[in-house]
Write a structure and sequence with these properties.
This protein has 12 helices and 11 strands. By secondary structure, the protein is an alpha/beta fold. It has 2 domains: 258 residues, NAD(P)-binding Rossmann-like Domain (Rossmann fold, 3-Layer(aba) Sandwich), CATH 3.40.50.720; 101 residues, Dihydrodipicolinate Reductase, domain 2. The strands form 2 sheets. A 7-stranded parallel β-sheet has the order 3-2-1-4-5-6-11, sandwiched between helices. It has a 4-stranded mixed β-sheet with strand order 8-7-9-10. Strand 1, helix 1 and strand 2 form a beta-alpha-beta unit. InterPro entries: Myo-inos-1-P_Synthase, Myo-inos-1-P_Synthase_GAPDH, NAD(P)-bd_dom_sf.
Amino acid sequence: MSAEPSLSTPSSAPRIGVWLIGARGSVATTAVAGCAAVAAGLHPPTGMVTETAPFASCGLPSLSSLVFGGHDTVDCPLPKRAEHLAAGGVLPHGLPSAVHAELVAADQEIRPGGPLPGDTDGGPERTQDQWIDVFAADIRDFVRRQGLAGAVVVNVASTEPAPTDGTLPPSSLYAAAALRAGCPYVNFTPSTGLHHPALAPLADSSGLPYAGRDGKTGQTLLRSVLGPMFLQRALAVRAWSGTNLLGGGDGAALADPAAAAAKNAGKERVLADTLGAAPEGEVHIDDVPALGDWKTAWDHIAFDGFLGARMVLQTTWQGCDSALAAPLVLDLARLVARAREKGLSGPLGELGFYFKDPVGDGPSSLAEQYAELVGFAERLRDGADAPGTQR
C-alpha cells in the first residue's frame, strides 16, 4: 500500500523522545507500531491531523525522528502485545512483523512503573518524592542515552479513581516526574495528573508547556459537534443519556465506579459547555470483556422543536479506541515538542480540540476548537511571533 506524501519535517531533524506512561497498553502499542508503519510508507497517516495541509511547514518533528520509551507496571513485551492487537483486528495483519525492530527498540526503553494499587507507600518502601525522583531519572537517562534533543511525556495509562485525600495518585507522580526531568507533559487520560492542587506551583514555575486532559476520541467527539448544533438552531435539549459497552483494559478499569466517575466528568462538561447547561441524563459504562479493544456507544437525545413538538435523536458509535487515540497521541507529542522548541509554556488551551476536559481557556465546540488549533499551527511556524506563555 502506498502512503500519501508525508508533511513531516525532514528525517535529518533532531530526534525527539516520546515517553509513554502505560507504554505496553493498547494505545501506546498502536501508536508505536503506527508511527513506524507511516514513517516507512507502509500505511497512510489516516487520523493524523498534523499530517494535513494546515500543518505543513510548522516545524513539527518528523515521525521518523520520534523515539519511544516509557513506564509500565506490566511486563508483556510490545511485539507480543502487537500480535494480540493484530489478532483482534486492531492492527493490520502482518504489521507486527513488518515493524518488529521498532517495537523491540521501544520495548527496551520501557522501565518499571508504580506504585501499584494496594502497595504500602509504593511496594518498595519509597516516599512519593522518591518515586518522582526515580521516574524523572528514568526519563533523563532515556534522553541522554539516546542523544535526544528533548522528550515529551504522554500519559496513556488506564483511568484511575480521583484521589480522596491529599496523596498524589500515580498519574500525578508521573506528571511531577516529567516536569522535574524538564519535559512537557500531556495527559491523554481522565486521571488527575497535573490537576492535583499540590502540583499547581510546580506546573506554574516549570516554564514548560502542558496539555490535557482525557482524549476526545468517540462519543464525546460527536457530542462536541451535536451540542452546538442544537444550540445554534435554538432547539431545546430536554435530556441526553448515553451508554458505553467496552472491554479490554479500559473496560476493566472503568468497572470501578470511582474510575468511571472520573471518566464521565469530561463527557458531562462538554454538554454543559456547549449547551449552556447540563441536561438531564447520565452516561453508563459497562465492562464487556468479549468486546476486547472495541466499543459501542449509544446516545439518546430528547429535544423540543417549534411549538413544543417533541423529538428524539439517537446515535450509535462503534469503533476501536486504540486506533482512534493513537494518531492523536502522535499529533500531540509533535505539537507539544514544537511548542517547547518555540519557548511556549503553561497550559496549551489551543489543543482543546483533542480533549474532553482541556486545560486553559478555550471554546467547547469542535469547529471553534479546530480553528484555534489551526491558528496555533500558524504560530509554530519559523518566523511567527510566539508569546512566552500560553493562557
